[in-house]
Amino acid sequence: MHFISERRLDDGVLEREFTLGEVPGILWTPPASAPVPLILMGHPGGLDKMRPRLTARARHSAKDGFAAATIELPGSGERPRSAAAEQARADLQAAVRAGGPVDDEIVDRLVLPLVDKAVPEWQATLDALLALPEIGGPVGFSGGVTAIGVRLAAVEPRVAAAVLFAGSFVPRVLFEEARQVTIPLHVLLQWDDEGNDRQAALELFDAFGSKEKTLHANMGGHTGVPQFAGDAAAAFFIRHLS
Fold first, then answer.
1. Mean pLDDT computed over every residue of the chain
2. Which of 123, 167, 161, 144 minimizes the C-alpha distance to 39?
3. For residues 110 and 151, what is the distance between their CA atoms, to the nearest angstrom?
4. Rounded CA gap, 82 and 132, in Å?
5. Mean pLDDT over residues 55-67, rounded?
6. Cis peptide before 145 (omega within 30 of 0)
7. Which of 4, 14, 111, 147 is the most exposed place for a label (fewest CB within 10 A)?
8. What is the largest CA-CA distance in the chain?
9. 133-168 tens-digit pLDDT
10. DSSP designation for 67
11. How would you classify the pairing of strands 14-20 and 185-190?
Protein backbone atom coordinates (compact mmCIF):
# COMPACT_ATOMS: atom_id res chain seq x y z
CA MET A 1 0.00 0.00 0.00
CA HIS A 2 1.41 3.37 -1.06
CA PHE A 3 -0.09 6.63 0.23
CA ILE A 4 0.00 9.23 -2.52
CA SER A 5 -1.71 12.23 -0.87
CA GLU A 6 -3.13 13.37 2.42
CA ARG A 7 -5.13 16.27 3.81
CA ARG A 8 -6.65 17.14 7.17
CA LEU A 9 -10.37 17.96 6.96
CA ASP A 10 -11.86 20.73 9.07
CA ASP A 11 -13.23 18.25 11.62
CA GLY A 12 -9.79 16.74 12.17
CA VAL A 13 -10.33 13.65 10.01
CA LEU A 14 -7.21 12.63 8.08
CA GLU A 15 -8.01 11.74 4.45
CA ARG A 16 -5.34 9.80 2.54
CA GLU A 17 -5.42 8.50 -1.00
CA PHE A 18 -3.55 5.28 -1.64
CA THR A 19 -2.83 2.67 -4.27
CA LEU A 20 -2.57 -1.07 -3.71
CA GLY A 21 -1.14 -2.47 -6.91
CA GLU A 22 -3.45 -1.16 -9.63
CA VAL A 23 -6.27 -0.45 -7.17
CA PRO A 24 -6.81 3.16 -5.99
CA GLY A 25 -8.51 3.87 -2.70
CA ILE A 26 -9.08 6.35 0.11
CA LEU A 27 -8.63 5.99 3.87
CA TRP A 28 -10.22 8.30 6.43
CA THR A 29 -9.08 8.13 10.07
CA PRO A 30 -10.45 10.05 13.05
CA PRO A 31 -8.21 12.21 15.24
CA ALA A 32 -7.66 9.42 17.78
CA SER A 33 -4.42 8.09 19.24
CA ALA A 34 -5.52 4.50 19.88
CA PRO A 35 -6.16 1.91 17.12
CA VAL A 36 -9.76 2.24 15.97
CA PRO A 37 -12.30 -0.09 14.35
CA LEU A 38 -12.64 0.02 10.56
CA ILE A 39 -15.60 0.26 8.19
CA LEU A 40 -15.09 -0.80 4.57
CA MET A 41 -17.35 1.37 2.41
CA GLY A 42 -18.73 -0.22 -0.74
CA HIS A 43 -20.15 1.75 -3.66
CA PRO A 44 -21.34 1.11 -7.25
CA GLY A 45 -18.12 2.30 -8.89
CA GLY A 46 -16.74 5.59 -10.13
CA LEU A 47 -14.79 6.75 -7.10
CA ASP A 48 -14.46 10.36 -8.26
CA LYS A 49 -18.22 10.68 -8.79
CA MET A 50 -19.03 8.95 -5.50
CA ARG A 51 -16.38 10.76 -3.47
CA PRO A 52 -18.57 13.51 -1.92
CA ARG A 53 -21.08 10.95 -0.63
CA LEU A 54 -18.33 8.60 0.54
CA THR A 55 -16.52 11.41 2.34
CA ALA A 56 -19.74 12.40 4.12
CA ARG A 57 -20.27 8.79 5.21
CA ALA A 58 -16.65 8.53 6.37
CA ARG A 59 -16.84 11.74 8.40
CA HIS A 60 -20.02 10.50 10.07
CA SER A 61 -18.23 7.25 10.91
CA ALA A 62 -15.24 9.18 12.28
CA LYS A 63 -17.55 10.97 14.74
CA ASP A 64 -18.49 7.52 16.05
CA GLY A 65 -14.81 6.61 16.43
CA PHE A 66 -14.31 4.53 13.30
CA ALA A 67 -11.85 4.68 10.43
CA ALA A 68 -13.33 4.18 6.96
CA ALA A 69 -11.85 3.06 3.67
CA THR A 70 -12.97 2.48 0.11
CA ILE A 71 -11.46 1.24 -3.14
CA GLU A 72 -12.33 1.62 -6.81
CA LEU A 73 -14.21 -1.27 -8.41
CA PRO A 74 -12.70 -3.29 -11.27
CA GLY A 75 -13.60 -1.68 -14.59
CA SER A 76 -14.62 1.65 -13.01
CA GLY A 77 -12.97 5.04 -12.82
CA GLU A 78 -9.52 4.96 -14.41
CA ARG A 79 -9.22 1.19 -14.16
CA PRO A 80 -9.12 -0.89 -17.39
CA ARG A 81 -12.47 -1.71 -18.93
CA SER A 82 -13.69 -5.22 -19.79
CA ALA A 83 -15.42 -5.58 -23.13
CA ALA A 84 -17.55 -8.44 -21.77
CA ALA A 85 -18.64 -6.36 -18.77
CA GLU A 86 -19.44 -3.34 -20.95
CA GLN A 87 -21.63 -5.51 -23.20
CA ALA A 88 -23.39 -7.07 -20.22
CA ARG A 89 -24.02 -3.59 -18.76
CA ALA A 90 -25.47 -2.39 -22.06
CA ASP A 91 -27.71 -5.47 -22.24
CA LEU A 92 -28.92 -4.88 -18.68
CA GLN A 93 -29.67 -1.20 -19.33
CA ALA A 94 -31.59 -2.11 -22.48
CA ALA A 95 -33.67 -4.66 -20.54
CA VAL A 96 -34.44 -2.10 -17.82
CA ARG A 97 -35.47 0.52 -20.41
CA ALA A 98 -37.77 -2.03 -22.05
CA GLY A 99 -39.62 -2.34 -18.75
CA GLY A 100 -39.46 -6.11 -18.58
CA PRO A 101 -37.68 -8.48 -16.19
CA VAL A 102 -33.90 -8.65 -16.45
CA ASP A 103 -32.74 -12.09 -17.53
CA ASP A 104 -30.66 -13.97 -14.96
CA GLU A 105 -28.06 -14.69 -17.63
CA ILE A 106 -27.40 -10.97 -18.10
CA VAL A 107 -27.06 -10.44 -14.35
CA ASP A 108 -24.62 -13.36 -14.10
CA ARG A 109 -22.49 -12.03 -16.96
CA LEU A 110 -22.26 -8.59 -15.39
CA VAL A 111 -22.05 -9.29 -11.66
CA LEU A 112 -20.27 -12.61 -11.12
CA PRO A 113 -16.95 -11.61 -12.76
CA LEU A 114 -17.07 -8.35 -10.79
CA VAL A 115 -17.56 -10.20 -7.50
CA ASP A 116 -14.84 -12.73 -8.33
CA LYS A 117 -12.30 -9.93 -8.84
CA ALA A 118 -13.48 -7.32 -6.33
CA VAL A 119 -13.69 -9.50 -3.22
CA PRO A 120 -10.01 -10.61 -3.29
CA GLU A 121 -9.08 -6.95 -3.81
CA TRP A 122 -11.10 -5.99 -0.73
CA GLN A 123 -9.35 -8.75 1.23
CA ALA A 124 -5.90 -7.57 0.11
CA THR A 125 -6.87 -4.02 1.09
CA LEU A 126 -8.00 -5.27 4.47
CA ASP A 127 -4.64 -7.03 4.95
CA ALA A 128 -2.82 -3.75 4.30
CA LEU A 129 -5.11 -1.58 6.40
CA LEU A 130 -4.99 -3.83 9.46
CA ALA A 131 -1.18 -3.67 9.30
CA LEU A 132 -1.35 0.09 9.98
CA PRO A 133 -0.81 1.04 13.66
CA GLU A 134 -3.82 3.37 13.67
CA ILE A 135 -6.25 0.66 12.52
CA GLY A 136 -7.46 -2.07 14.86
CA GLY A 137 -10.62 -4.09 14.78
CA PRO A 138 -13.28 -5.21 14.54
CA VAL A 139 -14.20 -4.57 10.89
CA GLY A 140 -17.54 -3.75 9.29
CA PHE A 141 -18.71 -3.55 5.68
CA SER A 142 -21.17 -0.88 4.56
CA GLY A 143 -22.87 -0.26 1.23
CA GLY A 144 -22.99 -1.95 -2.16
CA VAL A 145 -22.59 -3.57 -4.61
CA THR A 146 -24.91 -5.96 -2.73
CA ALA A 147 -23.42 -9.08 -4.32
CA ILE A 148 -19.91 -8.03 -3.29
CA GLY A 149 -21.10 -7.52 0.28
CA VAL A 150 -22.74 -10.97 0.31
CA ARG A 151 -19.59 -12.75 -0.90
CA LEU A 152 -17.30 -10.78 1.42
CA ALA A 153 -19.50 -11.46 4.44
CA ALA A 154 -19.56 -15.16 3.57
CA VAL A 155 -15.82 -15.69 3.04
CA GLU A 156 -14.01 -13.05 5.14
CA PRO A 157 -13.98 -13.92 8.87
CA ARG A 158 -12.52 -10.53 9.82
CA VAL A 159 -15.78 -8.79 8.84
CA ALA A 160 -17.83 -8.79 12.04
CA ALA A 161 -20.98 -6.94 10.91
CA ALA A 162 -22.40 -5.48 7.70
CA VAL A 163 -24.85 -2.87 6.49
CA LEU A 164 -26.01 -3.80 2.99
CA PHE A 165 -27.83 -1.51 0.55
CA ALA A 166 -30.42 -3.58 -1.33
CA GLY A 167 -30.23 -1.60 -4.56
CA SER A 168 -28.46 -3.76 -7.13
CA PHE A 169 -28.96 -7.06 -8.95
CA VAL A 170 -27.74 -10.21 -7.20
CA PRO A 171 -27.08 -13.45 -9.15
CA ARG A 172 -29.16 -16.37 -7.92
CA VAL A 173 -26.06 -18.44 -7.16
CA LEU A 174 -25.19 -15.93 -4.44
CA PHE A 175 -28.44 -16.67 -2.62
CA GLU A 176 -26.81 -19.96 -1.58
CA GLU A 177 -23.76 -18.08 -0.36
CA ALA A 178 -26.08 -15.82 1.63
CA ARG A 179 -27.13 -18.84 3.68
CA GLN A 180 -23.52 -19.08 4.87
CA VAL A 181 -23.56 -15.51 6.21
CA THR A 182 -23.94 -15.56 9.99
CA ILE A 183 -22.70 -12.12 11.09
CA PRO A 184 -25.14 -9.43 12.27
CA LEU A 185 -26.76 -7.66 9.31
CA HIS A 186 -28.63 -4.42 8.79
CA VAL A 187 -30.21 -4.22 5.32
CA LEU A 188 -31.50 -0.96 3.83
CA LEU A 189 -34.25 -1.29 1.20
CA GLN A 190 -35.88 1.56 -0.70
CA TRP A 191 -39.38 0.25 -1.41
CA ASP A 192 -39.86 2.14 -4.69
CA ASP A 193 -36.32 1.71 -6.05
CA GLU A 194 -36.90 1.77 -9.80
CA GLY A 195 -33.72 -0.16 -10.58
CA ASN A 196 -34.08 -2.89 -7.98
CA ASP A 197 -36.14 -6.09 -7.89
CA ARG A 198 -37.97 -5.68 -4.58
CA GLN A 199 -39.12 -9.29 -4.39
CA ALA A 200 -35.60 -10.57 -5.05
CA ALA A 201 -34.28 -8.27 -2.31
CA LEU A 202 -36.81 -9.70 0.14
CA GLU A 203 -35.89 -13.25 -0.86
CA LEU A 204 -32.20 -12.48 -0.37
CA PHE A 205 -32.88 -11.10 3.09
CA ASP A 206 -34.80 -14.26 3.93
CA ALA A 207 -31.87 -16.38 2.69
CA PHE A 208 -29.27 -14.87 5.03
CA GLY A 209 -28.24 -17.30 7.75
CA SER A 210 -27.67 -14.61 10.38
CA LYS A 211 -29.51 -14.94 13.67
CA GLU A 212 -29.47 -11.16 13.97
CA LYS A 213 -30.67 -9.47 10.79
CA THR A 214 -32.76 -6.35 10.40
CA LEU A 215 -34.55 -5.12 7.29
CA HIS A 216 -35.03 -1.35 7.29
CA ALA A 217 -37.44 -0.53 4.45
CA ASN A 218 -38.53 2.98 3.53
CA MET A 219 -40.75 4.44 0.86
CA GLY A 220 -38.95 6.23 -1.94
CA GLY A 221 -36.58 5.73 -4.86
CA HIS A 222 -32.96 4.67 -5.04
CA THR A 223 -31.44 7.95 -3.83
CA GLY A 224 -34.16 8.80 -1.32
CA VAL A 225 -32.73 7.09 1.77
CA PRO A 226 -33.90 9.21 4.73
CA GLN A 227 -31.40 10.54 7.24
CA PHE A 228 -32.90 8.55 10.07
CA ALA A 229 -32.21 5.33 8.15
CA GLY A 230 -28.55 6.28 7.99
CA ASP A 231 -28.61 7.06 11.70
CA ALA A 232 -30.02 3.60 12.42
CA ALA A 233 -27.22 2.02 10.38
CA ALA A 234 -24.65 4.06 12.32
CA ALA A 235 -26.17 2.90 15.61
CA PHE A 236 -25.91 -0.69 14.35
CA PHE A 237 -22.15 -0.30 13.86
CA ILE A 238 -21.72 1.38 17.24
CA ARG A 239 -23.44 -1.60 18.79
CA HIS A 240 -21.32 -4.21 17.02
CA LEU A 241 -17.93 -2.57 16.44
CA SER A 242 -17.38 -0.34 19.48
1. 93
2. 161
3. 15
4. 33
5. 96
6. yes
7. 4
8. 54
9. 999 989 999 998 999 999 999 999 999 999 999 878
10. E
11. unpaired
Beta pairing class for 2-8 and 36-41? unpaired
pTM: 0.94
Three-state secondary-structure class, residue 81: coil
* CATH architecture of residue range(s) 2-82+115-241: 3-Layer(aba) Sandwich (3.40)
Q: How far apart, in whole angstroms, are the C-alpha atoms of residue 40 and residue 20?
A: 15
pLDDT of residue 23: 97
205: left (phi over 0), alpha (psi -120 to 50) or beta: alpha
Please state the φ and ψ torsions of residue 55, each to the nearest 5 degrees: -65, -40
Locate the domains of the chain by residue range. 2-82+115-241
- Determine contact, residues 160/138, Cβ cutoff 8 Å: yes
Task: Give me the pLDDT at residue 222, please.
Answer: 65
| % of the chain exceeding 90 in pLDDT | 78
Percent of the chain residues topping a pLDDT of 70: 98
In 3D, which of 140, 184, 178 has the Cα closest to residue 159?
140
> pLDDT tens across 68-95, in order?
999 999 999 999 999 999 999 999 889 8
Amino acid at 86: E
Q: How many residues does the chain have?
A: 242
C-alpha span between 75 and 111 (Å, rounded): 12
Intra-chain end-to-end CA distance of the chain, in Å: 26
